[in-house]
């Protein structure tokens, strides 16, 4: 699933648009309002500053070392989705700024620097990423757009502010970031000490906002299925609802009742086993 020139340009535009929406929310919302169980609005802004700081280094927009503290790089390499909260705590300690206006300005500056540094790069260029995974440049940008949208949803809901996630932006997260990560190597990200069912399950994902794709879980390894693979499960999804569900902002029951995620196929119950392996941090 190659990234077209048009899709790459759209994702780049999304970085600016989503980053601006998030920065504006940080400036409008009360800084001490609890956006999640662990983070206030200003904490959430700090998280996005550290993520965009790191992405700016990965894209070579900034020359500073990404991990100035000893041992942090090793933690970054071995982390998985279940341990990501621990890494976030360590990385967020490096950012001492707590003024919402300054944090919003830094996010805008980081986005602009990343876009400027990558104006002529190949969107399929591989990059070393979290948990010893491999990500493309387009995947990295689709990921930061999703970070802005998910955490912007947190802030807007907590502060009673309007916040709309465009379906096209949400679609790029699954199609370009998530599927790309599976294709190019997800490293340790899906590792878990928990016992997993030894099943083979193929799940076809379909949306009017993205190209169809089938993912295969076999012997606890996830891959992009070969063309013609018969699916056990079919998932028809609204990308906004799917992303909110994957990150624990909307329950699976609510997602299905809203028809934002519809699960069918000959063996839909196997979706539960699939999701025990294929998961996102919540």
Please describe what this structure looks like.
This protein is of the alpha+beta class. The chain has 2 domains: 168 residues, Up-down Bundle (Four Helix Bundle (Hemerythrin (Met), subunit A)); 77 residues, SCP2 sterol-binding domain (Nonspecific Lipid-transfer Protein, Chain A). The chain has 10 helices and 7 strands. Strands 5-4-3-6-7 form a 5-stranded mixed beta sheet. Helix 1 packs antiparallel against helix 5, helix 1 runs parallel beside helix 6 and helix 6 packs across helix 7. The protein is globular and about 55 Å long. The model has no long low-confidence stretch (mean pLDDT 94).
Which fold name corresponds to the CATH topology of the largest domain?
Answer: Four Helix Bundle (Hemerythrin (Met), subunit A)
Helix content: 40-55%
CATH class of the largest domain: Mainly Alpha
The CATH homologous superfamily name of the largest domain equals dinb family like domain
Estimate what percentage of residues fall within beta strands.
5-15%
How would you classify the helix and strand content by structural class?
alpha+beta
Question: What brief labels describe this structure?
Answer:
alpha+beta, five-stranded mixed beta sheet, 2 domains, Four Helix Bundle (Hemerythrin (Met), subunit A), Nonspecific Lipid-transfer Protein, Chain A, 13% strand, 10 helices, 282 residues, two-stranded antiparallel sheet
């Amino acid at each position: 699933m190659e990234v077209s020139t048009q899709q790459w340009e759209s994702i780049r535009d999304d970085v600016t648009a989503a980053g601006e929406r998030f920065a504006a929310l940080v400036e409008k919302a009360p800084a001490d309002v609890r956006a999640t169980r662990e983070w206030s609005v200003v904490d959430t802004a700090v998280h996005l500053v550290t993520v965009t700081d790191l992405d700016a280094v990965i894209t070579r927009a900034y020359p500073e070392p990404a991990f100035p503290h000893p041992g942090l790089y090793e933690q970054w390499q071995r982390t998985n989705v279940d341990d990501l909260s621990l890494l976030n705590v360590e990385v967020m300690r490096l950012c001492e700024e707590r003024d919402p206006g300054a944090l919003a300005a830094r996010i805008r500056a980081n986005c602009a620097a990343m876009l400027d540094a990558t104006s002529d790069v190949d969107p399929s260029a591989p990059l070393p990423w979290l948990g010893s995974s491999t990500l493309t440049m387009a995947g990295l940008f689709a990921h930061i757009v999703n970070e802005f949208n998910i955490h912007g949803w947190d802030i807007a809901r907590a502060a009673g502010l309007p916040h709309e996630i465009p379906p096209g932006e949400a679609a790029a997260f699954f199609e370009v970031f998530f599927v790309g990560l599976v294709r190019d190597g997800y490293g340790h990200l899906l590792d878990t000490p928990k016992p997993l069912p030894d099943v083979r399950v193929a799940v076809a994902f379909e949306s009017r906002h993205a190209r169809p794709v089938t993912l295969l879980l076999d012997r606890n390894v996830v891959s992009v299925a070969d063309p013609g693979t018969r699916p056990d499960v079919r998932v028809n999804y609204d990308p906004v609802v799917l992303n909110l569900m994957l990150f624990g902002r909307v329950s699976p029951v609510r997602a299905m009742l809203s028809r934002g995620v519809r699960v069918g196929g000959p063996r839909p119950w196997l979706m539960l086993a699939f999701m025990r392996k294929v998961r996102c941090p919540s």
